[in-house]
Write a structure and sequence with these properties.
Length: 255
């Protein structure tokens, strides 16, 4: 199948991500290309957030008109897809070398994804419109499959594990993004966890109304003020390890 046929079968933005769309013959030549446009849009999103990204603003940052940009990238939706794919190039092959034990590899995979969401808070604001089909996104999937290559899982099961871990990383990334935004706005980390309200909540959350939450509120476990809590306890790591335990237990049951 030739490139023109493949291009016609894919959405325009996806075809652009694979580099199988010819550069426009009209408009600015050699002064602008798809990568420059995407890089400029990412710079704006990094500095001002995703809401600040518009075709006009990106064009202006490059010294061109929005009409010039549309010759290269047909729509803002295509631009967002290309931005998302570009920042998904996170060097997983270097972070997770061949032969790394599967639990260690999947742990590194999730933490790399969480780091992406932390470093690029706008990433999770781009709606998910379907399965990943752009090259860098597929490279992420390929890396996760490589980690699980020798596991006693069927292909559909491996894809389900990837979806589970990616969803967990996304949820953790969103929470960390919101925490960072709150702290940046002046909130303390203690206030974010509800610690300053421990005394008031302990009186409001009664055993009659909240029978199962009440003991945790009294102990301080809910707001993280429990004096007996393990200082090294990490909610994110705890959840991830339990997911990996589940995968291991599931495979043991198939033996």
């Amino acid at each position: 199948m030739d490139e023109e046929t493949i291009q016609n079968e894919l959405p325009r933005g996806v075809a652009l991500s694979w580099g199988i769309v010819k550069e426009p013959q009209r408009g600015p030549k050699r002064e602008m290309n798809v990568k420059q446009i995407v890089d400029a849009a990412i710079a704006i999103a990094d500095a001002e957030g995703l809401a600040a990204v518009s075709m006009n603003k990106v064009a202006s940052s490059l010294g061109f008109t929005a009409m010039s940009l549309y010759r290269y990238i047909p729509s803002k939706e295509d631009l967002l897809l290309l931005m998302q794919d570009a920042v998904s190039e996170i060097g997983l092959d270097e972070l997770i070398p061949e032969g790394m034990p599967w639990r260690e590899g999947l742990r590194a995979y999730v933490k790399a994804m969480i780091h992406l969401f932390q470093s690029r808070p706008w990433f999770v604001e781009i709606p998910i419109t379907g399965a990943p089909i752009t090259p860098n996104n597929l490279k992420v999937v390929d890396c996760a499959l490589r980690i699980m290559r020798e596991l006693r899982l069927t292909d559909p099961e491996k894809m389900s594990v990837i979806l589970l871990l990616s969803s967990y990383a996304r949820a953790c990334g969103i929470l960390q993004r919101d925490f960072n935004s709150a702290v940046k706005a002046g909130m303390s980390s203690a206030a974010f966890s509800g610690a300053p309200y421990q005394s008031a909540l302990s009186k409001l959350v009664t055993a009659e109304r909240f029978p199962d939450l009440h003991p945790l509120m009294i102990s301080g476990a809910y707001t993280g003020t429990d004096e007996d809590a393990d200082e090294m306890f990490n909610d994110f790591d705890f959840g991830l390890e339990r997911i990996l335990d589940g995968v291991e237990h599931y495979m043991a049951g198939k033996a």
